[in-house]
Structures are given as structure tokens and as C-alpha cells.
Amino acid sequence: MKTVEVDELAVINGDIIANEVVVKGTVKGNIYAKTLVKLCQNCTVYGKIFYGDLVIEKSAVLSGSSEKLAPGVVDKIFKKTKAFTTPAPAKPAAKQ
After folding, report:
1. From the centroid of its chain, how far is CA 76?
2. pLDDT tens digits for 26-84?
3. What band does 85 get if pLDDT is binned at 50, 70 and 90?
4. In whole angstroms, what is the distance from residue 92 CA to residue 19 CA?
5. Which of 6, 22, 36, 82 has the greatest number of CB atoms lying within 10 Å of its CB?
6. Residue 74: its pLDDT value, please?
7. Spatial contact of 26 and 42, defined as CB atoms under 8 Å apart
8. CA 20, CA 2: separation in Å to the nearest integer?
9. Which pLDDT value is given to residue 89?
10. Distance between CA 12 and CA 73 in Å, rounded?
């Protein structure tokens, strides 16, 4: 999962973990983004944002906190989730 975009009419109840997160709607949960979190105009986030880089446009609302993560900390968070693990290549079917 590289980029998660929350549409203008969307309401997400839960955490988001991705390389990049763009919020246009509402998020009720924490956001963990390895590279970028962008809060667009008129969006609302209720929770904590952990990010590599953060952009907040005019009229975006953050009801919570934000914290820039050091690269080592970001890697630890992403290793704990399967969202960034590369699936093992499929094995060929056994010949019968």
C-alpha cells in the first residue's frame, strides 16, 4: 500500500498506515505515514499523526497531535504491520 487517499465524503473510523496519506474527508483514528501526510482544505482528523513530512492546507482541522518520526522509528512501525511486507512469490503447482 503506497498511497491512501480519503475522499471528501469519506469517514474513516480506524488507523491508517501507508507510505503517503492524503486526507480530504474525515479520519477518526491515528495516521502513520512513512513519507507524507497531506491534510487538504476542509478535512478533519481526530487523532494523532505520525509522519515523515506534513502539509496542512488552510481550513484543515487537526483535533489531536502530530509528531515527526525519525527514520529508525518509522521503520519499526512499518515492520510491525503487514501493510508493507512484500508477498512471497507464488510457488509453481506440483506436477502430478
Report:
1. 15
2. 999 999 998 999 999 999 999 999 999 999 999 999 999 999 987 766 667 667 765 54
3. very low
4. 31
5. 6
6. 64
7. no
8. 6
9. 44
10. 25
CA separation for the pair 79, 67 (Å, rounded): 19
Distance, CA of 32 to CA of 21 (rounded, Å): 8
Contact of 15 with 33, CB cutoff 8 Å: no
Contacts of 23-27 spanning 24+ positions with Cβ under 8 A: 23/60
* Amino acid identity at 26: T
What letter does residue 73 receive in the DSSP assignment? H
Buried b (16+ CB within 10 A) or exposed e, 20-29: bbbbbbbbee
For strands 26-28 and 44-51, give the pairing. parallel
> Helix, strand, coil shares of the chain as percentages rounded to 5?
10, 50, 40
How big is the chain, counted in residues?
96
